[in-house]
UniProtKB/TrEMBL annotation:
Name of the protein in its database record: CUGBP Elav-like family member 2
Keyword set, alphabetical order: Repeat, RNA-binding
Keyword check for Nucleotidyltransferase: no
Glycoprotein as UniProt keyword: no
SUPFAM superfamilies xrefs: RNA-binding domain, RBD (SSF54928)
All residue ranges annotated as the RRM domain in the record: 21-101
UniProt GO molecular function: RNA binding
Length: 188
């Protein structure tokens, strides 16, 4: 054989992965250095790594990462230190939690993209509806509620109001049909 066999645990089998032991520390005084953070968290166990996040100018960003030897040590640090004190120059108490994993970061990024797309879609939808000038504020509120929440039942109020304002309603119905809204429900 030219290459020896390599064996290692699968990602799901890692019992002591760094992400299970790494803490994010927020609302840290910008005057603190790595040694100060180490001293603050050393009572909870052996610290493998301690790093203050710094900007391009080398100044502290007011947060740090601490990696413990075991998950139990990290959990004890969270229980004891989270919101236990407000450090100098900080507006709220210290935040101590498990650091986000790459999976968490990716999921948050996807959620932000989805929210932006929904906002753009909502803006585009309302921007494309012409002839809304003749509608009363009640119509506009019901239309927006119905389309933003996919609540077609909200159109019952629109149909009831239509009896009073046939002209304005008749200009909106074709536009709603173009948007794929074809059913109107009336409460009996």
């Amino acid at each position: 054989m030219h290459h020896p066999i390599q064996m290692k645990p699968a990602d799901s089998e890692k019992s002591n992965a760094v992400e299970d032991r790494k803490l994010f520390i927020g609302m840290v005084s910008k005057k603190c250095n790595e040694n100060d953070i180490r001293v603050m968290f050393s009572p909870f166990g052996q610290i493998e790594e301690c790093r203050i996040l710094r900007g391009p100018d080398g100044l502290s960003r007011g947060c740090a990462f601490v990696t413990f030897s075991t998950r139990a040590m990290a959990q004890n640090a969270i229980k004891a230190m989270h919101q236990s004190q407000t450090m100098e120059g900080c507006s709220s108490p210290i935040v101590v939690k498990f650091a986000d994993t790459q999976k968490d970061k990716e999921q948050r990024r996807l959620q932000q993209q989805l929210a932006q797309q929904m906002q753009q879609l909502n803006t585009a939808t309302w921007g494309n509806l012409t002839g809304l000038g003749g509608l009363t504020p009640q119509y506009l509120a019901l239309l927006q509620q119905a389309t933003s929440s996919s609540n077609l039942g909200a159109f019952s109020g629109i149909q009831q109001m239509a009896d009073n304002e046939q002209g304005a309603f008749s200009t909106v119905v074709p536009q709603l049909t173009e948007l794929g809204i074809r059913r109107f429900y009336v409460k009996a």
